[in-house]
Amino acid sequence: MKFPENCPAAIAGLACLLFSINASAHALWLEQDNASARLYFGEYNENLRETSPGRLDDIIEPAVTVIDSAGTEKPAAATRLDNYFAIPDGGTILVRALKQRIRDPRADNPGAVYRRFLYARFGSGGSLPLDIENTGNLLRLSFMGKPLAKTEIIVIAPNGWEKHFKTDEKGETAYSLLEPGLYVIEAKHELNSPGVFEGKPYTIESHKVTASFYK
Predict the structure, then answer these.
(1) Contact 152, 122 (CB under 8 A)
(2) Cα 131 from Cα 30, distance rounded (Å)
(3) Pairing state of beta strands 36-43 and 85-88?
(4) Ramachandran region of residue 145, left (φ > 0), alpha (ψ -120 to 50) or beta?
(5) 3-state class (DSSP) for residue 118
(6) Rounded CA gap, 112 and 89, in Å?
(7) By CB distance 3.0 to 4.6 Å, which of 19, 37, 117, 141 could disulfide with 32?
(8) Strand partners, 152
């Protein structure tokens, strides 16, 4: 378990532990090498990658868009393997996982039933419903094209340490990086928007996005 920077080591007690637990919920993220890209589901800060058979199977038919250097968008296949989805390498990659089954009510909030929308980005260009734009030293967070103000963004370093930021009125926050490697930036936005999916009612839409990049 990684503690946030604002939890002093000498007093990293129950409050900080609960903060870390809340911050480490599962997400999708992308990793890339010279030949292909890999879509993982788990917790990057804990080096946890879910497997199939197992919780990786909770991700139902992720929709992948690849954008080449000319800006042309095209769909791509995501092939489920032991602990990731394999995606053909094509430049910028956008993932939308929209078909997750409705969550059961949480014990601490029995009236809330969640529908999860998970997104992942590698590279710049295109757009996602909940999206993070990385300009090198500035992050911009938006939902349906509009800035998200006063919203938490978590930057997870290659060694698993997290740094937490809050967007300003423009949906922006400045940040800086230290060590080389893969960084995963994560944000979440929830809406009280009741609906029905596959015959099951829900009350909350939970949108979560990551943006991956190498320093």
Answers:
(1) no
(2) 14
(3) antiparallel
(4) left
(5) strand
(6) 39
(7) 37
(8) 166
Cβ atoms within 10 Å, residue 57: 12
Question: Model-level pTM?
Answer: 0.86
Q: Which residues contact 61 (CB under 8 A, 6 or more apart)?
A: 97, 99
The pair of three-digit structure tokens given for residue 180, joined into one six-digit string: 């080389």
* Tokens 């943006």, residue located: 211
Amino acid present at 84: Y
pLDDT digits (tens, 9 = 90+) for 126-181: 999 999 999 888 999 999 999 999 999 999 999 999 999 999 999 999 998 888 99
The answer to whether residues 38 and 32 touch, using CB atoms and an 8 Å cutoff, is yes
Amino acid at 121: R
Residue 158 to residue 202: CA distance in whole angstroms: 36
Amino acid at 13: G
Closest by Cα among 89, 90, 93, 88 to 77: 88
- Total residue count of the chain as it appears in this document: 215
Give 199: exposed, middle or buried? Use CB within 10 Å, 0-12, 13-18, 19+. Answer: exposed
73 contacts 85 by C-beta, under 8 angstroms: no
